[in-house]
Amino acid sequence: MRFPISIVGAGTAGLIAARRLGELGFSPTVYDQKRVLGVPVRASGILSLSGITRLGIDYSGCETNRLHGAKIYAGRSVLRIRSKSPMAVVLDRKKLSDACYDQAQASGAKVVTGKRLTGHALDELAGRGVVVGADGAVSSVARHFGFGEIGRFAVTYKAEYEVEASESGMVELFFDNRNYPGLFGWTCPNRKDLLEVGVGLYSGNGNARAAFDRLIKTEQIASVIGSRRPVDHGASMIPMRMRKSIVDEGRRVVLIGDAAGQVKATTGGGIIFGGSAALMAANAIARNADDGTALSDYEREFRRAYGLDLSMHYMINKVYSSLGTKGMEKIVSVMNLLGLDRFLSAYGDMDRPSLILKRFFLRGLIR
């Protein structure tokens, strides 16, 4: 039995779900309170090549750079991870939003912008069919239907400067729990001539803008950006753990993406996990319409596929967020002594720490 499907939120996850539902023969409607999608740009566009390929997005017109690795700084210690082949791609987030929008519409989805849904409207939509909450970290869908709290958030502040990075294929991460408690500072060459600088920290543990101002005054950053003004800047909020439940079978509501807390707690990146959840949710909704299969199959499938990885990201974050700079400095030094820089350069996976662990035991550090 076919029924109306309403997706609240036209971010990447919502539009991927809409595209997949259209491919399966449905005509979902996507609602977003913004009149212009993809702006302002608040999140970084660093995605693993393996992950973005799995999502089926045509990102050919969105790519601005390819990354081969990262330099991780903690006190006086530096861990350098560099692969011969690209590990990640940097995408223009506005162009990525446009690409997802075009693909969703081409599959038969309808996208309604400038539309904020009331609680009464959400109840009516859920009563007639299925509601997919894809409306971000502070989800009105999750709040209205009484889903459990996420509990932990991070706030970020980033800006872009028209300068060249010293290495156009490398990200820099700065761990300092005194200044960036819970996450880190970073630089990323979004293009050859456009450098992103940002910080992230636990919500409630300081002011992200103040932490950002401290970062750009450090010798390492100040020597690169000088007195230049940013061409773009802004803050965002990121969920740091998954909700305990992401499906309400009785009221026929499912959550995906940031609304579900499907984000890597180590970095705050959520497109790959959120997009994967969108595909799984769309497939589960289609099965529910065709043969009555429970919507909760989506949650079971997602947790089976990615629950361990998200838990590992969360535990890794808890470890490094509990350490002072000296503690992180010692860990990075030990990692260098053990040769983990070489191992991660060869076998690292920025999305799937469970795969890294598996490769570690299968191959070992000495080849």
Mind explaining what this structure looks like?
This protein is globular. It has a domain at 5-45 and 92-152 and 242-319: FAD/NAD(P)-binding domain, CATH 3.50.50.60. A seven-stranded mixed β-sheet has the order 6-5-11-12-13-10-14, with helices on both faces. It has a six-stranded mixed β-sheet with strand order 8-2-1-9-16-15, sandwiched between helices. The longest helix is centred in the C-terminal third of the chain and has 25 residues, at 297-321. It contains twelve helices and 16 strands. It starts with a strand and ends with a helix. Helix 1 (12-23) packs parallel to helix 3 (93-106), helix 1 runs parallel beside helix 8 and helix 8 runs antiparallel to helix 9. By secondary structure, it is of the alpha/beta class. Helix content is 38%, strand content 24%.
In a few lines, what is going on in this structure?
With 367 residues, the chain is of the alpha/beta class. It contains twelve helices and 16 strands.
